[in-house]
Design a protein that fits this description.
Oligomer: heterodimer
Radius of gyration of chain A: 25 Å
Number of strands of chain A: 0
Structural class of chain B: mainly alpha
Order of helices and strands of chain A: HHHHHHHHHHHHHHHH
Largest sheet of chain B: 2 strands, antiparallel
Strand content of chain B: under 5%
Shape of chain A: globular
Number of domains of chain A: 1
Number of helices of chain B: 17
CATH topology of chain A: ABC transporter involved in vitamin B12 uptake, BtuC
Chain lengths: ~375, ~350
């Protein structure tokens, strides 16, 4: 933002110069301006790529340095643990890119889980239970979306409210009971692995959801519009993006996927409780931000976020295998999060300083005018 | 995120615009205060509960209400300082936990340490933790939501690492320290009096001093505040520092009020604190709200639990009702904002 304004200022300066003096120096100024990366360099040196390198390097390191890490068991448990965060992080990426936030996701997952328990205990067919639970998530998301997009309230405040509301409804629905007698075939499916690879069967579903949101964000006009929306709501409105409709559907999206995560959580641990997945919202947001999404909106990508989620998951798992206590885990999560946002900011300050110096050096002819 | 500035502008701005009819009735402007809805809600809640169950306002009942609210009041006041500048501090629960454990450790390892020293030490630790937040936010220019989410984890991790499985119980602390949350003056527990002093001090600072008014200016429009010559970074840093000190104070009082302090003390408190401030009429994107409102919001949220118990409502409804309250507070705030904006437009149209 400030870079481009500076560039514009420099150009205007040079143009004013050109009006007063021969135009020779204009070209020079522009030619020495940084171009930004293009082509392959842009993909290979971008923020996403760095996250992916970090995951790969860490996995390689863990395979060599930590005994018992390189095995199918690792793959299985690591992915099983990471799936709820990974699922919710996908729609959350889209929400944060538009400059909004959804803090109620973990509560929606808890509400879904509680509802599943009660409906199943009431003797409904498991298929109906799953469908109704998913519908509950959609409705919860639509409620958020209505308050934010239609009524026009700030999403941070609304979802703090619905964080309490949905968790409260979960308590109302199931109290402090727990329902555990889900059909064994189904719970078995949720912990089963694909052959000898150790990859959990449910990963197929997760990949489908990831592809859906990846394609939606990166390859459709709707997705490109979300970036525009995150940069400037007014500008997005003027170019014809239906801002409120987009926001509404995004919150329906986080609600539905949170319901999926709630269903997964219930069947994986074979337990429906009102406090399932509590506190998960901050883990999800930390992972999304670590994955390179800007909290101000307008920046971020699905591959980066997936890498961010996997990085946190792998580090946690490796530390646990290396018998380092859970204590260090959260310190590492917090430090990574802060480092991931402070480092680019320092880097940006450095490039700005470099750019200023270059501009100052390339405009010596402008000075003698006074 | 980008509400129009007019809807968020604090009341004083409305008064500077010539608006003759508003001067007519002091009552009218009183009704329009941001604190009114939450105060009405609190009074209604207390009266209804009292009508159903007179024991609710017995001497012991009132004392319990005040004790339960004390810590949340102090945290909400600190949070208001930060939110008014259009920032947020999610790490307060972790700061409280760390300081509470520090307090327990001090009493257990240094026998006979004066209580006042413990208070100062606890608040100093809180100040350091708050200063880290403030520095990261102002120097690195990274949004507070991200920074304090990070320090929420880091401080909690430090607390875990330090405490491990250790817990300190009330027996490890001198009786006079525990007595702070038992003894009363005029029916008010001592720690509640401390909280009320904090509310008054911060309220005076925010209403009556130039740096305090600056916080509102920063929250309304950071760029304009900068142009106006307000040292934005320094003020925001001080807001985080003060919030750290208050969270530290709350941590020390927590150790006095509750029996055990350990690795998980204060977990999950951050969103309750923000909720209390929002219910109390503090706009989540800065620029308006008062510490008195936030304090009343804190009392309301903590009173609901006891009121529902007294009314024999199923305890499971409590959290859902808190959620509804928060949403109601935001909607009311929004409606008031729309009305203010319309009034401003009308009066400007007349002036032209």
């Amino acid at each position: 933002m400030s870079d481009s304004t500076r560039t514009a200022a420099a150009n205007a300066n040079a143009n004013a110069n050109a009006a007063a003096a021969p135009a020779a120096d204009t070209t020079k100024t522009i030619s020495t301006l940084g171009k930004g990366r293009t082509g392959a360099a842009r993909i290979l040196l971008g923020r996403d790529a760095i996250m992916i390198y970090a995951v790969v390097v860490f996995v390689l390191y863990a395979c060599i340095a930590i005994p018992r890490f390189a095995s199918p068991v690792t793959v299985g448990f690591l992915l099983l643990d990471v799936i709820p965060v990974l699922l919710i992080a996908l729609p959350m990426t889209l929400v944060i890119i538009t400059g909004e936030i959804d803090l109620s996701v973990a509560s929606i997952a808890g509400l879904t889980s509680a509802l599943m328990g009660v409906l199943w205990e009431a003797g409904l067919d498991i298929g109906t239970v799953l469908v109704l639970s998913l519908v509950a998530g959609v409705l919860a998301g639509a409620f958020n979306g209505f308050l934010i997009a239609v009524v026009g309230l700030p999403s941070l405040a609304v979802t703090i409210g619905t964080l309490a509301l949905f968790r409260g409804l979960a308590l109302v629905v199931i109290g402090d009971n727990a329902v555990a007698n889900f059909p064994p075939e189904l719970t078995g499916l949720f912990t089963s692995k694909l052959g000898a690879t150790g990859i959990p069967t449910v990963m197929i579903g997760v990949v489908v959801v990831a592809l859906f949101f990846g394609v939606l964000l990166h390859m459709t006009p709707f997705g490109r519009g979300l970036y525009a929306l995150g940069f400037s709501k007014e500008a997005a409105t003027f170019v014809g993006i239906k801002v409120n409709r987009a926001k509404f559907w995004l919150f329906v999206g986080t609600g539905s996927v949170s319901a999926l995560a709630g269903i997964y959580w219930t069947l994986r641990y074979s337990s429906a409780r009102s406090d399932n997945a509590s506190g998960l919202e901050l883990t999800v947001i930390a992972a999304v931000l670590l994955g390179g999404v800007s909290i101000f909106g307008g920046k971020g990508s699905i591959p980066g976020v997936i890498a961010g989620v996997l990085l946190i998951g792998t580090i946690n798992y490796a530390l646990r295998l290396g018998r380092i206590s859970d204590v260090v885990l959260i310190i590492v999560t917090g430090t990574l999060l802060i480092a991931s946002v402070v480092a680019p900011s320092i880097f940006a300050a450095f490039t700005r300083w470099q750019h200023d110096r270059r501009v100052r050096r390339s405009l010596p002819q402008a000075a003698p005018r006074e | 995120m980008t509400n129009t500035p007019t809807t968020q502008s604090p009341a004083p701005q409305g008064q500077t615009v010539a608006r003759p009819e508003s001067r007519k009735s002091a009552l009218g402007s009183l009704i329009r205060l941001r604190e009114v809805p939450v105060t009405v809600a609190l009074i209604a809640l207390v009266l209804i509960t009292y009508a159903a169950n007179p024991l609710f306002l017995g001497a012991q009942g009132v004392k319990d209400l005040l004790l339960n609210a004390t810590i949340m009041i102090i945290l909400a006041v600190g949070q208001t300082l930060v939110i008014v500048t259009r920032n947020i501090d999610l790490s307060v629960g972790s700061i409280l936990g760390l300081v509470a454990f520090f307090t327990g450790t001090l009493f257990a390892t240094v026998p006979g340490i004066p209580i006042i020293v413990v208070f100062v030490a606890g608040m100093a630790l809180g100040a350091v933790l708050g200063a880290v937040n403030g520095l990261l936010v102002t120097v690195a220019k990274v949004p507070a939501l991200v920074i304090t989410l990070g320090t929420l984890y880091i401080y909690r991790g430090l607390n875990n690492a330090w405490a491990g499985g250790t817990q300190y119980f009330a027996d490890d602390r001198p009786d006079e320290f525990g007595a702070l949350s038992v003894d009363t003056v005029l029916g008010f527990p001592l720690i509640t009096l401390i909280a009320i002093l904090v509310v008054i001090a911060v309220a005076v600072y925010m209403v009556g001093t130039r740096p305090g008014r600056d916080l509102y200016a920063i929250g309304s429009d950071p760029a304009a505040a900068e142009l106006f010559g307000i040292p934005v970074a320094r003020r925001v840093f001080l807001a985080f520092l003060a919030n750290g000190v208050l969270a530290g104070l709350a941590g020390v009082l927590y150790a006095s009020r509750f029996n055990s302090v350990g690795a998980t003390t204060g977990t999950g408190m951050e969103l309750d604190v923000v909720a209390a401030a929002v219910v109390g009429g503090v706009a989540i994107f800065g620029g308006s709200g008062s510490v008195a409102g936030a304090a009343i919001g804190a009392v309301l949220l903590t009173t609901i639990t006891s009121a529902l118990t007294a009314l024999r409502v199923d305890k499971f409804w409590q959290q859902a009702i808190v959620g509804v309250l928060i949403l109601a507070a935001i909607v009311i705030d929004r409606l008031a904002g729309i009305r203010t904006a319309r009034k401003l437009r009308e009066s400007e149209a007349r002036d032209v």
